[in-house]
Design brief:
Structural class: alpha+beta
CATH superfamily of the largest domain: YVTN repeat-like/Quinoprotein amine dehydrogenase
Distance between the termini: 92 Å
Number of domains: 3
Number of strands: 31
Organism: Propithecus coquereli
Number of helices: 7
InterPro entries: CUL4-DDB1_E3_ligase_receptor (IPR052254), WD40/YVTN_repeat-like_dom_sf (IPR015943), WD40_repeat_dom_sf (IPR036322), WD40_rpt (IPR001680)
Protein name: DDB1- and CUL4-associated factor 4
CATH architecture of the largest domain: 7 Propeller
Pfam families: Beta-prop_DCAF4 (PF23761)
CATH class of the largest domain: Mainly Beta
Helix content: 10-25%
Pathway: Protein modification; protein ubiquitination
CATH topology of the largest domain: Methylamine Dehydrogenase, Chain H
Length: 494
């Protein structure tokens, strides 16, 4: 029989298949030795180019990045990626990324545990004197002082007391919001049976070494999603809570004024038994209460392509048509302006002295490249800070209408994440979609600290934080409160 006969070609093809590692890889479902492949490529004639290296998921620069496979640097073998597979525990890029993030989180927590405690105020003053000698610039000294204080913040669990201890063990924190004086904390908790429950935590007992607070609850439930929350000053400062609720089935969305006295009375001689006051406002994304005299007893809601200004006492409404959904709002205190952040990335201010006719009510216009999720006006009202869904945090000069500072490191892709600016302490605080709490210096945009979540990273467990210069009231100390899952933590800043 000739050499070109079928049996000869079949045996010849089998030898090629057995000798070539690439064919053996395609027939394997899980493992492959990269060393054999590397030696085969290195021994090949005329092969002067190095193989393509893997980035990110490969975990090693000395092994090739094979489409559809993942190289585990610990086990030193390839595993097949299964996109869209219906196995109970498939190996996917998402699970690999989750594993890497969890490893990083545990490393940061371990570093925090090893961190030394702040010794004495005397040693801190000595370091301040040394810093003043090394850094004569006030800005450099201020930045170093913030970095020193932030790096010494330690996580301590807060003991929460309630009339219903069983609820504390089952209800998970959705969000927390401190009032103006930081002596109360409004909470939205997810109930195990479905829906939400509201409460107010009294922070006056938040003193070291025993961090104990009391939660006041009310049997007021809702099975609708809470889109936005802010404190409202109707009878007195922070007398009510303003909530924007999504519509459900045949029930339209609404804005609800919830009296804080339904939970606990902070003004026994002034507070009267409050009643719920609801306004039928469908599809509200955001809300803000006005402390400006030009819009007294008014609140604003950001809707789909519209801003609605409502007077609580008279019921009068003004509507301003916009070109995009309004996701965040804040009233200025000195100037008669209402700042709005839109899904399109536009930030604009409404002049409250103008009517809603024509286009003269738009006072300022700024632009981000992605949807704006938070807008914060600085005290002098010459600058505004905004964050977006691209993870950008920018400080804008309103007079020059340009970005003067950018804060790097924030992570966000699609979530409505708030931004916390504290000029008295000179810090900016934001929680990213990766569940890390980051603290920047307000003056030079330096990232001072990255705080990992006490729990594994999850889209459903993004921490909610509150930072204040006086936690617990006027005599309180600066600190950061973090609510995640069923726990509340305090980071003393001093």
């Amino acid at each position: 029989m000739s050499k070109n006969s079928w049996p000869s070609r079949r045996r010849h093809g089998r030898r090629i298949y057995q000798q070539n590692p690439w064919f053996r890889l395609r027939d394997s479902n899980e493992r492959y030795d990269p060393g054999a492949l590397q030696s085969t490529q290195d021994s090949g004639p005329g092969d002067d180019e190095s193989p393509s290296t893997s980035s990110g998921v490969a975990g090693s620069s000395s092994v090739p990045d094979l489409p559809g496979y993942y190289f585990d640097p610990e086990k030193k073998r390839y595993f097949r990626l299964l996109p869209g597979h219906n196995n109970c525990n498939p190996l996917t890029k998402e699970s690999i990324r989750q594993k890497e993030m969890e490893k990083k989180r545990l490393q940061l927590l371990e570093e925090e545990d090893k961190q030394k405690k702040v010794e004495t105020s005397g040693s801190s003053s000595q370091m301040s004197v040394m810093a003043s000698m090394l850094f004569p610039s006030p800005i450099s000294l201020c930045s170093l002082a913030h970095e020193l204080r932030v790096s010494c913040m330690q996580r301590k669990k807060v003991q929460i007391h309630s009339s219903d201890p069983s609820a504390l063990a089952s209800d998970r924190f959705n969000l927390i919001l401190a009032d103006t004086n930081s002596d109360r904390l409004f909470t939205v908790n997810d109930v195990k049976v479905g829906g939400s429950k509201y409460g107010i935590i009294n922070l006056r007992g938040l003193k070291t070494p025993s961090l104990r607070v009391h939660m006041h609850e009310n049997l007021y439930f809702t099975n609708r999603k809470v889109n936005s929350v802010c404190w409202a000053s109707l009878n007195h400062l922070d007398s009510h809570i303003l909530l924007c609720l999504m519509g459900l089935a045949e029930t339209p969305g609404c804005a609800t004024l919830l009296p804080a006295s339904l939970f606990v009375s902070s003004h026994p001689g002034v507070d009267r038994p409050g009643m719920l006051c609801s306004f039928r406002i469908p599809g509200a994304w955001s809300c803000a209460w006005s402390l400006n005299i030009q819009a007294n007893n008014c609140f604003s809601t950001g809707l789909s392509r519209r801003v609605l200004l409502t007077n609580v006492v008279t019921g009068h409404r003004q509507s301003f048509v916009t070109s995009s959904d309004v996701l965040t709002q804040q009233f200025a205190l000195l100037a008669p302006l209402l700042f709005n952040g839109c899904r399109s990335g536009e930030i604009f201010a409404i002049d409250l002295r103008c009517g809603n006719q024509g286009k003269g009510w738009k006072a300022t216009r700024l632009f981000h490249d992605s949807a704006v999720t938070s807008v914060q006006i600085l005290q002098e009202e010459e600058c505004v800070m905004a964050s977006d869904m691209a993870g950008k945090i920018k400080l804008w000069d309103l007079r020059a209408t340009k970005c003067i500072r950018q804060y790097e490191g924030h992570v966000n892709e699609y979530a409505y994440l708030p931004l916390h600016v504290h000029e008295e302490e000179g810090v900016v605080v934001a929680v990213g979609q990766d569940c890390y709490t980051r603290i920047w210096s307000l003056h030079d945009a330096q990232l001072l600290r990255t705080i990992p979540s006490p729990y594994p990273t999850s889209k459903a467990d993004i921490p909610s934080v509150a930072f204040s210069s006086r936690l617990g009231g006027f005599r309180g100390a600066p600190g950061l409160l973090m609510a995640v899952q069923r726990d509340l933590y305090c980071f003393s800043y001093g």
